[in-house]
Amino acid sequence: MRILFTIAILLVVVTVAGAIYFRQVPMPAEVWHVEPADVTPPTTPNYVLLGGRRGPAPPRAALAATADLLEQAATAEGATRIAGDLSDGHATYVARTALMGFPDAVSIRLVPDGDATRVEIFSRSRYGQSDLGANRARVNRWIAPLAP
């Protein structure tokens, strides 16, 4: 019984230490701030890339309105901007998972398309082979307010 208790305590300590580490790990802008349209898709399935032809259908909104809606979505989820500014058409955010704080980078490019704005997004996990759908769910939540 004492061994099980010791193992349980060790698991709790390792989990807490991991959560602290992943919440503090740096995400340098020079590495993570990229153009979604220029990205070569990773070999792991822990990303979502909507760019170029894969970008969402243009919403019926100007660049400034689109930038405001995306900035609000990012802020509402606690994402931190590490580079760029959506009002200039390109920004990268770090969003962290709720439980362990795993960092995900989300690069967004806004491309004027007539009276509308095309949104290109590359959301990817820094760690792991699979993100269990976290990046896709995040992108869907962030672009949902843009739907006509």
UniProtKB/TrEMBL annotation:
Lineage: Bacteria, Pseudomonadati, Pseudomonadota, Alphaproteobacteria, Rhodobacterales
Entry-linked InterPro entries: DUF1499 (IPR010865)
Top-rank lineage group of the source organism: Bacteria
Protein name per the record: DUF1499 domain-containing protein
Pfam families recorded: DUF1499
